[in-house]
Amino acid sequence: MTERYTRVASTILALTLVLSACALTGVAASDEASLSVPGSIDTPTKTVSIEGTEYEVSSVAVREPGQSLPVDVSASDSTDFRVDLYNSDEQRENSQYGTGSERVTFDTDALDPGTYLLMLQIDDDYVEIHPVVISGYDVETDHADEIEPDETLNATISVTPTAADGDPEGVELVVWNDETTIRESAEQTDDGTYEATVSDLEEGTYDVYAIAQGGDEIDGEHEILGVSDGGSLEVAESTSEPTPPDDGDDGSEDDDSDNESDPVDDGDADNVSDGESENVSDGEPDNGSDNETDVIDDPVDGDEGNETTDSDDGADNDSSSESNETSEVVMPTNETNETDAGTEDDPGAGSDSVPLEAVPILVFALVIVGVSTRVTRR
């Protein structure tokens, strides 16, 4: 019995050391039987040697105190087996018996949080092992699913006491694949919150999990009191490229600004400066006389000149001589329009308007013509 306990203690110590680097599950070292626990967390495969016998481990079963612990045994139909559950103090907590391929179940109500070991025994030899953590802390991790090789992995770890008291002795983040296993201690940043970073990861796919450690030690290694569910991480160079717009535009703002500015430069600006500005200049100084305004506005807009002439021509024959005089004055104005229209080759000519300095001369000429006409008729 002493030898058996010594072997169990050595096994738990070896598994505790491995668990500190990665979570575990048992993989059969014997062809005649195997042991597994549903819901175990996958981890890197490790080989543990105990007194000359090698056992492969690659995941860990995690249970809350009081949760049932089912164990599936696969063996030949006539093979009798026994599954023992040992604690870290080299004591056997319970045993279950069966034959062939069968599921047995352990009760965990009386188990304290800590690291335990399931051992499958056939014909007085242990042929399979499987680590179990009765959790004292609920552990969760939050991290990116993908990063680039030059980026740093930032992980937030939440630790909540369930069956344990106070904060854990330590929290570690584990990032691993078949070639690499990295352990990073996490720093507490708030009540129940820890942060850990991992840098210089090579391209590849990794598994990520965190562990919470208790105060009890086995040969200098802290006992495992909590393990998070496993997560995944992909480290790869980004291959995404900008997607061009559906309309074929390259997305630059220059094209839009050019398209908008061309119509303004080619048409609107010239029209405003050649027409509207000069029309305003020609019209405002002549507000003193309606007849004078009509005369000056006529060259600017041919339509307006025609309207003025039409209204004058359509008047009754009994209209005053002043109206007839106005019509007579409009005629030379049309001649002026024809003259202006023929000055297209002159780069200094305006659009169709009369220069401001000519306004007083025209007004004076109109007055003289009107007076002369009246004197002649009389």
Report on the structure:
Strand 6 and strand 7 form a beta hairpin. This protein has 3 domains: 2-134, Immunoglobulin-like, CATH 2.60.40; 137-235, Immunoglobulin-like (Sandwich); 276-377, no CATH class. By secondary structure, it is α+β, with helices and mostly antiparallel strands. It is 30% helix and 37% strand. The chain is built from 6 helices and 20 strands. It has helices spanning 2-21, 253-283, 290-300, 302-313, 321-341, 359-377, and strands at residues 26-27, 33-36, 41-50, 53-63, 69-75, 80-86, 92-99, 102-106, 114-122, 125-134, 137-142, 146-147, 153-161, 170-176, 181-185, 187-190, 193-198, 204-218, 221-227, 231-235. Strands 1, 3, 4, 6, 7, 9 and 10 form a 7-stranded mixed sheet that branches. Strands 12, 14, 15, 18, 19 and 20 form a 6-stranded mixed sheet that branches. A 4-stranded antiparallel sheet has the order 11-13-17-16, with no helix packed on it. It is elongated, with a radius of gyration of 50 Å.
Overall pLDDT level: 72
Coarse shape = elongated
Helical run tally = 6
CATH topology descriptor of the largest domain: Immunoglobulin-like
**Count of structural domains:** 3
Name given to the CATH architecture of the largest domain: Sandwich
Main beta sheet strand tally, sense and closure: 7 strands, mixed
Low-confidence stretches: 1-10, 17-29, 254-352
Structural class: alpha+beta
Strand content: 35-45%
How far the N terminus sits from the C terminus, by CA atoms, comes to 156 Å
CATH domain class of the largest domain: Mainly Beta
What order do the helices and strands follow? HEEEEEEEEEEEEEEEEEEEEHHHHH
Number of separate strands: 20
Radius of gyration (CA) equals 50 Å
Helical proportion? Answer: 25-40%
Region (Disordered): 231-354
Biased composition (Acidic residues): 244-316, 337-347
Protein name: MSCRAMM family adhesin SdrC
Organism: Natribaculum luteum
